[in-house]
């Protein structure tokens, strides 16, 4: 159950072209629900796909598995169930082992714990963290 | 300005011992405010330091710079200013370049954007993401 | 599956009266689950309904469609699935077109993205934003 | 620095009356900034003060110290710095000891940690938690 | 549907021992899904169980029902559905009445409302809240 | 205090060109800190500015004042202090009156309150909200 009616097919040429690019770039025929629902506005679909393609699908400075784990960390913290599922699945495909997955979860859980302690204590920021003082 | 009175010195032996372990493990004489404020309860200080030491300071499966970037992602998403400052400073010390920092920020920003779109559209989860179906 | 047992009927007079007011004010016979579950405490039901009635149902300064879009923005950001569904449905009834819905989603997504960048960069606030300096 | 110009005095009779009620109910002459800023709209001030008075200032079922600790838990999790400071100060006035404060912080930190693990693992809800099955 | 394959049985001795401790400490044979999914990494299971046991299951300074209500407040604010269900069920077992549940919900709702007002107004923190000034 | 060293000048031509476009599009000479800090990576600056320009600065379907209020709602809910200040200032410039500001704050506060109640009660979604059933 979604807030929009699902796009029923790929008859819109602008949607079809983007789907083709997704399929080619990702080397898979499968188009996930995220893209199928974004397709209710082809310009939004295009805007998001270009961001994802340039940053997550193309080779960049940070390796792909790490990029997915960073994405997972944000998605888990925002409690986005769909996003957590999709990026965990992708990280696994890119080689994230069960041991790495477990250690990753330990880190995001510890971060949430210490974030909460800092908020509760209202810890003042050390001057030493000032980027202008680091070299 | 904090919700507790700052611990004024290191006269409590249980606090002193943990501070010594922090100094030895991290190879620095500096004790950050987070630890100084946690010291208002030495058992809480001990509990948190052991988690941080075992997971973030010791060598584990995921490399240290990546671990800090995962920690940063959670802290930024939770909008914990202290935590963002302290873990960004640590990641830089561990070799995170300006290019990596910038790419990292682009990823956490994109993740927040797509998390929000998924929430707004209420996208149903693809069956293909089911961990039991992946092998 | 809820954390309380669903209120089974409208036999409680104080609940019945509020339901009648909801039906009259909204010109519909349908009472949504939110009100049915709140009814487990009729004073809480009354408190919330009066807030909603005065602010969202009555004519006020901001037009009704815009009010629902503001409500949607909060609900999406808080990742409240029920609230996102119910307020999107209401906004549509009040005339939100598919084009407006799409542009709205683009705005809340962009806001989440730039919020995240500001948190990651820890951008200092410009003095020019001070309300006391604006006139 | 605020998003509105601070209300400069208590010349507005509707504001003055509410301030008097705050002073009488709380048995203090001090009016905190929260109320001073809310006063930019006296009807909003009235709405919020009545909620706070009925729920937090008056004697109700849950004891006052516990009510403040519940309020603190929400404020810390939402990372509301002002709210964390003000409700921690109130809880202390109501008798929250340093030992209780410390244990409280340990609980909210543990809750954040396990919330994050549940989100990361996407744990399905046990049928046994269904309120309709509990009696 | 979870991000990991469910642990199928209790054949791993380290998992079995922790499950036995959970059963003994909680005086129930039932092991919730949270523990069954955490068991995919027995060291993480052990770490979390020890925190929960020491803080939530053992007798400490704050009474058990209040501890669960604090836990609920964090879980609701983080919108963790599983956690809200499980800790509400536990609080009820520990004696939380329907009247307390209702008042609790009114408090967490009011806190979210005033947190949001403070954020919107950007209210400056009163000097009087400074812990160093309180005695 | 930021996590990066502030960009000291506009000597980088790619930054200078974007700043010129910001100045021209917004009809102001002032460049806010957000843009000055984003400039540490000119490609990120360009990506964000193009999104903001196309959606918020250009005339689109939703009027500019409403767009800023939607942006404010997300920023307040995410507790992004900088963003709340900057978008409130912009909304005021675009004509948001004090009465509208106050009503807006009442709505975002009520939304946070009812979001929290829905999370606490775990209200099931009405079938009637299904977009596929609406026409």
SSE layout and pairing:
The structure is a homohexamer of 135-residue chains.
Chain A: H1 13-26, H2 33-38, H3 42-57, H4 64-77, H5 81-93, H6 98-121
Helix pairs in contact in A: 1-3, 4-5
Q: Descriptors for this entry?
A:
2 domains; AhpD-like; 135 residues; mainly alpha
Can you tell me about this structure?
Six copies of one chain form a homohexamer. By secondary structure, the first copy, chain A, is mostly helical. Chain A has two domains: 8-58, AhpD-like (Up-down Bundle); 61-123, AhpD-like, CATH 1.20.1290. In chain A, 64% of the residues lie in helices and 0% in strands. The termini of chain A are far apart.
Mean pLDDT of chain A, rounded to whole units?
Answer: 94
Low-confidence stretches of chain A: none
- The Rg value of chain A, from CA coordinates, equals 19 Å
| CATH architect. name of the largest domain in chain A | Up-down Bundle
Helix coverage percent of chain A: 55-70%
* CATH top-level class of the largest domain in chain A: Mainly Alpha
- Oligomer description: homohexamer
Shape of chain A: elongated
Distance between the termini of chain A: 52 Å
Give the SSE order of chain A as H and E letters: HHHHHH
| Broad structural category of chain A | mainly alpha
CATH topology of the largest domain in chain A: AhpD-like
Sheet of most strands of chain A: none
Number of individual domains of chain A = 2
Content of β-strand of chain A: under 5%
- In DSSP terms (H or I, runs of 4 or more residues), the helix count of chain A works out at 6
In CATH terms, the superfamily of the largest domain in chain A is AhpD-like
Pair with the most extensive interface? A-B, 68 and 68 residues
Tell me the total number of β-strands of chain A.
0
């Amino acid at each position: 159950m979604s807030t929009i009616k699902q796009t029923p097919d790929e008859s819109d040429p602008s949607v079809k072209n983007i789907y083709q690019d997704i399929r080619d770039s990702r080397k898979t025929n499968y188009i996930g629900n995220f893209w199928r629902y974004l397709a209710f506005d082809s310009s939004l679909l295009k805007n998001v796909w270009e961001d994802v393609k340039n940053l997550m699908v193309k080779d960049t400075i940070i390796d792909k598995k790490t990029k997915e784990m960073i994405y997972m960390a944000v998605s888990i913290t925002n409690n986005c169930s769909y996003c957590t599922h999709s990026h965990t699945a992708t990280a696994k495909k890119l080689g994230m082992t069960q041991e790495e997955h477990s250690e990753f979860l330990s880190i995001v859980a510890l971060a949430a714990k210490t974030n909460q302690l800092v908020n509760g204590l209202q810890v003042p920021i050390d001057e030493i963290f000032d980027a202008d003082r680091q070299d």
